[in-house]
Fold this protein.
Amino acid sequence: MSTSTLSAPTLRDPRKEKLQERTREAKVRYLMAFDSGQSRREREPEWLQARRASAIAHFEHNGFPTVRDEDWKYTDITSVANLICEPQSGLPTARDDKLESNEIQQFLLNTENSLRLVFVNGQLAPHLSTLHDLPKGVSLLGMRDAIQSHGALLQTHLGRYAEADANAFVALNMALFTDGAFIHLRKNVERTAPIHLLYVNTAPLTAAKVRNLVILENGANARVIESYVSLTDDSYLTNVVTEIVAERGANLDHYKEQLESSSAYHIATTQIKADDNANVQSHTFTFGGAISRHDANAVMDGEHIEVTLNGLYLASGSQLMDNHTVMDHAKPNCHSFEEYVGVLDDKAVGVFNGKIFVRPDAQKTDAKQSNRALLLSREAEVNTKPQLEIFADDVKCTHGATIGELDDEALFYLRARGVNKNDARDMLIYAFAHAVLDNVSIPELREQLEQQLMQRLRH
């Protein structure tokens, strides 16, 4: 006796179908943008033309990620792909030239002897930057200029670590970037004053493709700050890839602060390659953006390396903040540390996906990972997914994830001592978030971040 099962008819979702069609159209627009820049790319070195062509081929084949992709299951980037932006031409606009230093003064750090590069809508603004009288052994210039003056070094490193097949946005960045920062410290050069990279957006519906490369030769020491801010409340896209190379015995303190418009979209990748005895600390602070996605990845390709990845994100309204990290232990005797802290209110969504890989030869690995989230609303949501893939047997690897609400007893304690409800709430949130801020070793930056934190708590 045979039986048959009737399946329910699949219901069409016209809105979803329309978005999917627009996403396909967006893909075509980016491919056309690549084709339209062919004449400009012909003036670039052949090796760069080849890498751009390979990157756009990856994008054409794979397209934009969807929620069916495991690494993007909680982050629907349909609205990002469908944002009709004008790709930057590589030439500054009249508005860029007229931007005065007093307009960006609120974002600058008043640190002694600091160096800075300022970019407006993705393009270097020389009149706002430090391009002359650089310390001996330090190179600091825009990526477009570096391609001409440091071609051999860029050929060795650019695009070798954040590979184009990682995801669509890394591929598009390599294919279409027009500017960014190039930092190179020669052997044993020690730069204690910070190098500040400031990216300012002033125009709506633009797509800035920013490419940064930081190279520290053997024994070099530096502090680098990336700041992303806006002077407009409109929607725009920032797509940034930062590659960091820390050679033998190099030390880097790296900070990334994302303070963009709550209507902006920010998609970023930070890729770190560390060699023997290197020490890299990278701290990310995310306060802005309608959708913000940051992939922070480190490969420990030597012994006795220490890498720290820390993050703090504050989300409210309908913001979505997605942090993905990868700690790749490729060699023995290395240490990695992670602490990501999130505070979410209203209908905000947070994502943390932390992966630790321990390769078969990576004995004596010590890896620690912690993710903590504080939910201030019943409608706020956080998705956390720690992952360990261990193929060595002599290792110490730990991870922990906690999600909770404000402690009622702590609130009662403060209220009983005369602190009003709002102030008590803010004090507890501030204490929760400050664990990551305590790791900032630049006092002026820590003060700026504390002010940003307090402003957002008051709002």
The chain has two domains: 20-301, 412-459. The longest helix spans residues 14-36.
